[in-house]
Amino acid sequence: MPVIDSIQVGQPTDYLHEGYADGKQRSWTTAFFKTPVAGSVHVGRLGISGDRQADLQNHGGVDKAVLAYSADHYAYWRQHLALPEMPPGGFGENLSIAGLDEAGVSIGDRWQAGTVLFEVTQPRQPCWKMSRRWQLPDLAAQVVANGRSGWYLRVLAEGELAAGTELTLVRRPHPAWTIARANRLMHHERDNVSAAEKLAALSELSAAWKESLHKRIANRAL
To answer: Is residue 205 part of a domain?
Structure first.
């Protein structure tokens, strides 16, 4: 049974970055750097207590309240990236989950964790902050290529949560639409309008992904 291996939260913080062509340092703000939570933590409709997002246009909100990532991916990344000390939370996730990955999670899944009820809304789309966090310019592109993205969760029932809590699948309305399949459609099958229409029609899909897919469909119709 899948289990929450660790829970992480972060606050928007300013960091210095030196990777500019002119050689100058500039600050950037991110909450990507997460630290583990000891004991139980409250999970509300907008996320985990003590966690915030720096970019509220692209992160956070009801549809992306909690970011989950497979703890099972870390063995690969630590070896592949030569980062043996990469900790849980290294991909900016709130929940590091053992025993579950993108092939085993579907859009609309409802997962019970203690008193908290989650609903899967969309894959996480990797951005430049992931690459900058680890000073690996192509890291986000690698995630797009291999699909080890993680996924976002909507909170349907609030409650307390702690590391070690097992997750139980209580509803799976769209078994064919795994996170892995949704990733392939979004990033690698951009001409598959029929599949885009089917994914966009799922009521549980996040508003952001619905908007992106509807734009793609409209552009193909021109």
So the answer is: no
